[in-house]
Structure formats: C-alpha cells, structure tokens
Amino acid sequence: MLLVTSKWIVGTAASMAMMVVMSLAAAAESPVNFAGTDVLKEQPAFLSVDEAYQMDVSLSDDGHIEVSWRMPPGYYLYRHRFAFSLDSGGTLGQPIIPVGIEKVDDYFGKVEVYYDEVNVRIPIIEQTGPLRIGITYQGCADYGLCYPPETRGWTLVPEGYTVEALAENGIESSDVSMWVVVGSALLAGLLLNLMPCVFPVLAIKAVTVLDIARSGRGLKHAFGYASGVVSTFLVLGVLLATLRTAGEAVGWGFQLQEPGFVSAMTVLFFAMGLNLLGVLELPGFGVAMSKPSAFLTGIIAVVVATPCTVPFMASAMGYGLSRGTGALLLVMVVLGIGMAAPYVLITGFPAIARRLPKPGAWMVTIKQAMAFPMFLTAVWLTWVLARQAGADAVLVLLAGSVGLGLLSWLGMNKSARMSRVWSAGFALVVAVVWGVTSVLDEPTRKETAENRFDVAAFETARASGRPVFLNITASWCVTCLTNERTTLATDRVQDYFKNNGIVYIKADWTRRDSSVSDLLTTFNRSGVPLYVFFPSRSQPKILPQLLTPGILLREVDDYLAAKRL
Known about the structure:
- The protein is of the alpha+beta class.
- The protein has helices at about 5-30, 50, 165-170, 180-190, 200-215, 220-245, 260-275, 295-305, 315-325, 325-350, 350-355, 360-370, 370-390, 390-410, 420-440, 440-450, 455-465, 480-490, 490-500, 515-520, 550-565; strands at about 35, 40, 55-60, 65-70, 75-80, 85-90, 100-105, 110-115, 115-135, 140, 145, 150-155, 470-475, 505-510, 530-535, 540.
- Strands 3, 4, 6, 9 and 12 form a five-stranded antiparallel β-sheet that branches.
C-alpha cells in the first residue's frame, strides 16, 4: 500500500502550482484543441478535475475495494501518482494496478499513464467495520494543463452494519435499512423509561397502576396513556421538522433552551407535587384523586423525558432528521411506542396485573412520598433557569410558586372554589412565563454571549496537532450533568488528559447556539450529550453517551493504539 505523507503533499502541491502556471502560459501560446490525441484548431476549454476524472469506489464480493476512473478523450492519469491510505475499518493489501501506456511527459519524463479508463483493485486483508479510505491521484490533459494531486475520502459500509455502529464510527446512515432504524428507535423508547428524567412520572404511573390494572379499565387506561405518549412524540416531530424547514438549528430537547418553557415546566412540577400530597387537584389529572387522566399522564411523561438521550436514540433521530419529514415522524412514533410499551403490558393485561401486590392503605403513603421527587425536579429546573436567564428570572419563578401555594391553600377541600383556582392558576403560569422572558438581565445576556462556543478556538486546537476531546453538553441535560460529575470532572480523567496532551473543549447548548447545532449535525446527531475524541492525525471517534472513567479511558486508549498515534 502506498501512503501519502504531509511533507510529500506540500512539496508536490508547490511544484504542481508552478506547473499549472507554465501550462497556462504554454496554452496561451498554442491556440489548439484536441480530441483523443489528435490536434485540432481551437484553444482548449479544460474540464474541472471531477469532470475530467470521474471516480467510483465500491466493495466487491471477493473481498476487494474496486476503484475506477473514467476520462474523456485527451485526459490521462499517472500510474506513479496513485496512493491509497486506510484510516479505519481493517487492513488492506498491496494495490493491484494495471500496466499503463508508456509516455514521455513534459513534467515527469518517462512515465506510465492511463487514457479512457483505469480500474484498481485493493485486497482487504482484515475488515473490522466500515472502511475509511483516502485515495490520491493526479492527471493531466494532452494540451496544456496538469492538475494538482487530488485526495478524496471514501467510506465503504459492509452489509448488516447497525445504525448505532455507524453513528459510533461517525458514518452517515443514509444507506441503512429502515428496519434497523425502527428497531433502534423502539429500543431507545424502552430505555427512556429507565432514565432519571422520567422518574417523577414513573412515580405517578407506579402509584396508579395497581388500582387500574385490577379494575375493568386497565386496557382502556393503557391505550389512553400510549395515545398521549405517541401523540406528543408526533407533535414534537412536526415541530422539529417545521423549524428545521424554516432554517432553525434545533434538535431533541430544543424547547428546554427557552427560559419561558423551563419556567412553565417548573411550576407544573411544583403543582404535580402538591397534587400527589392531596393539596391541589389538577383538572383532568387527578393523580392523588379518583380519576387519573391516562392521556395527560402520557403527555407529561414525554415532556419531562426531553432532557434525556439514551443509546440508539441519537442515531435514530439523526437518521430521521437527515432523511426528511416522513422518516422523522416514523422515528418519533416508534420512539413513543417503545416508551409506552411496558406500561401497556403491565396495565392492560390481567394475567400480569394479578401478580402485582394488592392495593391498600400503603398506596396513600407511597403517593405522598412520590411528591418529593417532583419538588426536587422543580428545584433542578430552577437551577437551569438561573443558568439561562439569571437571578431576576428565578425571583419571578419563586414568587409565582408561592402564589400557586396560596391558591392551593384557598381551594383545598373546597370543590366549589376549584374552577376559580384553576383559572387563577393558569393565569399565574402565563404571568410567570411572561415575567421570566422579560427580565433577562444584561449581565446574563453578556455572560451568555461570552460563553458561546468558540469555533475559532476549536479549529485552532485541531490545527495545533494535539488530540482534542470535545464535550457537547447542556445544563438541562441530566445525562450530561451525570457524566460531567462522575467522569469528566474527576482527577483521574483530568490527569489523563493532561499527561497525554489532550485539549479538553466544552460546547454548551443550554441556550440556542447555531455553531453547536451545526457541530451536532456534522456528526448526524440531534441532541446532547455528544462526546467526540479527535486524534492528532486520524478520523474522530464518537464515544458512548453513558460514561464512566474506565469506559472513557479504555475507549481513547484502544483507539489510539489502533491508530498507533
């Protein structure tokens, strides 16, 4: 295998630049054209390099990479300028290059060249995944122009590769089977039920499932919940598609980038906590009362799940966003089905329900205890709001929460007043959202601007030749915060970065930042967290979304060892 070194490219580029100047001067003095190698009477109109040398790369059934070029009459390629380098995916053997036509060239003397077409076969000694190959070639025209060397990167994906494996290797998923994407989305939906973002709503479902499953309303309630989940995913998909069509750089969890939405969610979780304690009955929700709304519970479950991403989710969402509205909506519906499936199975089928504990007075205690995760979620969202909008916005939110507590006290156990309490509560939420969006103070605006992702600094770090670890995160992302506290901020990881000369760069997506959105799109991702390791001389490596110090160091060590960097 021939390898292309940076020193060779720089030297060759300089010499070829001189050749281009000489060639153009010669062309100006020779008003001739050509067809094949025959001289005509007009000055040539040269083709672009891609038009002159049409390249195709494919995997053959007999374990070879097939590289072919087609050229119009009068254009040729140099045999000695072919070079092939493999960045990842296995090991290649010596290229099988056919014998060319001998030619005395104005620039290189006696050489072998190819007219019309040429096919090169490269044996695959070992294949461990998608093959990333770099292909270098150079050609000239018979009358007056010699092109600089060209290097093209190409990715060859073997059959049967899953969408998650493609995403982990930074590969576009445009050729992946839709069934693989559907399976990934279904698994992601199931895994969402295990994430801490959804725990408060899991508490709601847990304290109602026993009564409902043993009553005659189990299946009806199960499908009501599933309808709420799937419908909300579908609405989010339509919003994502609409905003992206309008040119907005948005992804999974985009609504949590808005302080107004975060403040509304904070008040809602505070109200849900009061509801579980039996202090406030929410219309149509009734978790602590007698008639819980399955559909509304499904909606809330999806809304609070948006700060979390799970394995398989990022790749499925990235596929949907890259393939258009239809594919995105299909992915969102399947995500919803996956998330709702466990609850439908437990609640809707009596055989499973009969194995559950019998309802009793203990359920009241459980309901009340589950109020406190709701309050903790409200506290966390208040912290997120402080990062987004500053202390004045938090003051408005806390005042609104006190107002909601007052309304709950006025309406407690007094059903005649509840309609007025609900109306006042809705008006209070609107006032809090308006107040939060209006009091974004100047210091916070300045801090937000200063903390925007510095693309220039990132590119400078990459150009320095040092390896770079990129952490794309957000304050509202529970998975991100967990990974930072338990892994990225630990002395073990920080010392490893320092000892190995790895530059650590953090890109914050808490508020909208088009440069961060563009970076996510580059890696075919739609949300955070995203962890990318950039070696000094090889393709970047996407790391798992759930990190431990051991996983991170092992992934980086193994990748560096494979690349011998």
